[in-house]
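User: Could you check the structure of this?
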Amino acid sequence: MLASGARLSAVTATLQQRIRTAIQAALRYPAAAAAMQLTRRAQVQLDYQSGAVRNIQLKQSAGTPLLDRAALSAVRDARYPAAPAEIGDWPLLLLVWVELQMT
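Assistant: Sure, the predicted structure tokens are below.
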């Protein structure tokens, strides 16, 4: 059942954070970027629905194709959380910053 108002906003914000965490966990920082000590971020747009993503697009480059590919790969490879009951099968269009740095 779809929630309304403040509750839906809170649930959506929590889900977005869980999605960002899943993407960051899937990130494989390229060795070549590490050698150059690059720290950047890229913005990726995606459609999320019921624990799956599609229509992944790079919206803002990290400044190098190497890091852009790493960001897109992280979005493709992430293990996404299931949608909360309050959201159900409702699709979400998300813009996510992928932080690209050595850890």
